[in-house]
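Record filed here:
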Amino acid sequence: MVMKAIKDKVFAKVLTENEQTTPGGLIVPGTVRKEPQKYGLVISVGDNVKEIQMGDTIMFHDRGGQTILIDGEEHRVLSDNEIYGVTTRKVASCSCSNDDCGH
């Protein structure tokens, strides 16, 4: 499915964190860690969005935007003012099977 964002909206695939190991050797899976932010790979941007481009990795509040599922994977539709910024932080790769994803 191809999704085109409109106006001030940004469409992003939510990226998941890999598991981490604590200094004591305990493995903490990404599903257990609780961070107030999420990361997403930008799939499409609306015409009114100027500072974010397709393919950027963005950071946003974990409850920001509208959550939608496409082929069982979590995506978000966000207004540009809900996005904290573009980040270079490395997150798990996109498992999307869509060639137009941009990952």
Q: What stands out?
A: The beta strands are 9-15, 20-21, 27-28, 37-45, 57-61, 66-70, 73-79, 83-86.
